[in-house]
Amino acid sequence: MSKIKHILPSEVSDQELMKGIAKGDNRAINKLYKLFFPSISHMIINNNGSGDEAKDIFQDAVMVLYDRLTQGKFELNSKLSTFLYAVSRRLWLKQLTRKGTSTKTSDISDFEDVLKVEDDIERHEIIESNFEQMGLALEQLGEPCKTLLNDFYIGNMSMQDIKDKFGYTSTDNAKTQKYKCLQRLKKLYFSINKLEK
After folding, report:
1. Are 85 and 125 contacting, i.e. CB atoms less than 8 angstroms apart?
2. What is the pLDDT of residue 2?
3. What is the pLDDT of residues 38-88, one digit of tens each?
4. Domain for residue 130, yes or no?
5. Same domain, 108 and 154
6. Phi and psi angles of residue 36, each rounded to the nearest 5 degrees, phi first
7. Which of 183, 122, 118 has its CA nearest to residue 149?
8. Do 21 and 65 contact (CB within 8 A), yes or no?
9. In the prediction, which pLDDT does 94 show?
């Protein structure tokens, strides 16, 4: 692991990553997954997808990128994260429309149209910035709110489970606490958002 960090520092540029991917360097591919998979997985899971489907879509998006890089015709006009997000989003939308009608995986050449990503770039950069600010707000939120919100929204725990875990006297009390935590999180988020403008 320390070898990877030595060769690919945490502040690796998009260009360095793309060079590594074009060469089939596993360290670059691993770095790509570490940096960009979480937001794409979040987008797919929040849009009727599963963790496995998110992995498949991300892998297809990486293959689209690899295909373009090895053909030598690729010019990145946005952040690499934006490109991968937009490609993944289009692939997922296509899969949603196909879901239930065909389980056959399409050939990578079927995804040519996903490379027209300019209309998604600005929207994704706003989303990416909002994710970062929300992450900062969550870090500042503190306990038990941070764990409570994580359990409810990410862990999909029921209010009954949260009541039991945190020792609230009723599910109504747990809901009230969740509401208060959300209000605190919103306040933190908007104060961070104001500072960055």
Report:
1. no
2. 35
3. 888 888 888 888 888 889 888 888 888 888 887 776 677 778 888 888 888
4. no
5. no
6. -110, -20
7. 183
8. yes
9. 82
Q: Does 111 have pLDDT greater than 50?
A: no
- Both 41 and 77 in one domain: the answer is yes
Contacts of 150 (CB under 8 A, 6+ apart): 138
DSSP at 106:
P
The pLDDT assigned to 27 comes to 86
The number of helices, as runs of H, and strands, as runs of E, in the chain is: 9, 0
Residue ranges making up the domain that contains 194: 142-197
Q: In this structure, is residue 96 part of a structural domain?
A: yes
170-186 pLDDT, tens digit each: 999 989 998 898 888 88
164 confidence band (pLDDT: 50, 70, 90): very high
Q: How far apart are CA 115 and CA 84, in angstroms?
A: 10
Q: Is 66 exposed, middle or buried (0-12, 13-18, 19+ CB in 10 A)?
A: middle
Indicate the DSSP class of residue 46: T
Using N-to-C axis directions, what is the helix angle for 171-195 and 159-166, rounded to 10°? 90
Phi-psi map region of 156: left, alpha, beta (phi>0 left; psi -120 to 50 alpha): left
Residues 152 and 109 placed together within one structural domain of the fold = no
Q: Which residue among 66, 86, 120 closes a domain?
A: 120
The tokens for 103 are 């389980």
CATH number, domain with residue 61: 1.10.1740
